[in-house]
Amino acid sequence: MENFKEGFNATMEMTATPSYNINTTDVSEKNGSVFTDKYADLRESLNTMSLVIYCLTFVLGVLGNGVVIWVTGFKMKKTVTTVWFLNLAIADFLFTACLPLSVVYIAQNFHWPFGKLMCKLNNTISFLNIIASVYFLVVISVDRCVSVVWPVWAQNHRSVRKASCVSLGVWVLTLILSAPYFVFRDTAPSYFYLDIINCFDNYVLRDDSLTASVNQLRLIRHQAMTLTRFLLGFVVPFTVIVSCYAVIIHRLRRNRTLANQSSHPFKIIASVITTFFLCWAPFHIMALIKLVNSSQRSETLGHVTTIGVPIATNLAFLNSCLNPLLYVFMGQNFKDMVRKSIMAVLETAFQEEVSGSHSDTGDTRRSALSAEGLSMR
């Protein structure tokens, strides 16, 4: 049973495959003893909640991001801004489009019927979305900062071609950082039910029993994956984003007139940064707690992760369908918005920061910040 606990806690990483996949109260272990899951009822409730959230995220995410892709990719003149929004929407669309696989997985009591390759691809796309979205937010933040601090330089050097090259670079970096999630994802029969196939993170990469050395290797790989994701997927990007907007705010405060005219963009900046933090911070915090618990085996931490992991995962997944709503509601007066079609609203929103005059520094800065909230997820 101890080997099972080591493997089980390590394999069900906090990804598109939730980590709360024991839904039975009493089951017989392979050695004849009985394992009692005291969290069975709680897990069942959390699974139901996840099904609802996943379905909601799928519908809103596919429709919302699909509209953004349609507008920015086919209906509007291509600009640097639309290139950023298009790539953000593609990342979110790919992720939300794959959510039905996770819905089926949970609904079938965590049985994965789609094969090992789809298990790997589904997990990889999940983390590809996380990494791509975060780094496109970084690119957008840096772009906005440069447009405010060096408006003349930005006007002369920003181009669709360069934005496309930067976007390609982000996708290449994303694929490299996502590769380990493809390598370590695996399928295997459930410990309790051989007819149920689990899709999980296998840091051992072999079927040997968990000896001390093998378990140590598993733990090291688990630590490396979790800490790398936390640092490169959250801490570093979030630090850059906050730093960029701190520079923007500092710059605008030196110009009282411009600051008074930009009170609404300031509110948008605060809203999008707060949304980003609230959606992703719990996800990464829970991942760190799971990592600690994988070695300490604390009953308290186990209870925290049992409740916290699915809630944090659902919150993070919801972020992929919130972006189009933020673009619309934060970029337009609500009363004006309800009088327009969705396409007209998005076109107006995305055109705001490229339609202003660039005849002088002040106008350039106003143009750079007029749709600041639309530059963040």
Automatic annotation (TrEMBL):
One of the record's GO cellular component terms: membrane
> Transmembrane segments in this chain: where?
51-71, 83-107, 127-153, 165-184, 227-248, 268-289, 309-330
Q: Which SUPFAM superfamilies did the record assign?
A: Family A G protein-coupled receptor-like
Please list where the region (Disordered) is annotated: 355-377
* GO molecular function (one): G protein-coupled receptor activity
- A GO term (biological process) for this protein? chemotaxis
What PROSITE patterns has UniProt attached to this entry? G_PROTEIN_RECEP_F1_1 (PS00237), G_PROTEIN_RECEP_F1_2 (PS50262)
- One matching Pfam family is 7tm_1
Q: What residues does the G-protein coupled receptors family 1 profile domain cover? A: 64-327
How does it sit in the bilayer?
Multi-pass membrane protein
The yes or no answer to whether the keyword Transmembrane is present is yes
Q: Which family does it belong to?
A: Belongs to the chemokine-like receptor (CMKLR) family.
**Name of this chain's protein:** G-protein coupled receptors family 1 profile domain-containing protein
Q: What is the originating organism of this protein?
A: Pagothenia borchgrevinki
